Amino acid sequence: QTVEAGDAEPSVSANTLSLSVPLGGSVVQDLSISPNPFTPNGDGLNDVAQIGMSVFRITSSRDLDISVYTLSGRRVWQDRRTVGSGVQSVPWDGLDSDGNLVPPGIYILKVDLNIDDDSAGTVVTRTVAVAY
Fold first, then answer.
1. What is the C-alpha separation between 25 and 15, in angstroms, rounded?
2. Residue 94 CB: number of other CB atoms within 10 A?
């Protein structure tokens, strides 16, 4: 194909190639907990829950906060790490912040990726069950 000089699109004020792509969607996607429920009783089977997610649309590493709350809203565990774009996996062994096993029950898992845009789907929650 031949290339003709000039602006192909009047809304772009340059003579360069420009790609426009939609940036909609959440930054944190595909949040999963496996296994769920899990049984951190020390028998070697399903003792650790893997918290998995995909992180999109960030160009530099950011802080990721993961917290587990009781249904009454008390935080029992927290993990903070720096992550980049891509698939992430964080283990939770069913211990609270003091190193004690949490009681069996339903908990709220909250994932919060600290970026400048609060509307970009950076906070995601799921329930996680602990059983013995």
1. 30
2. 26
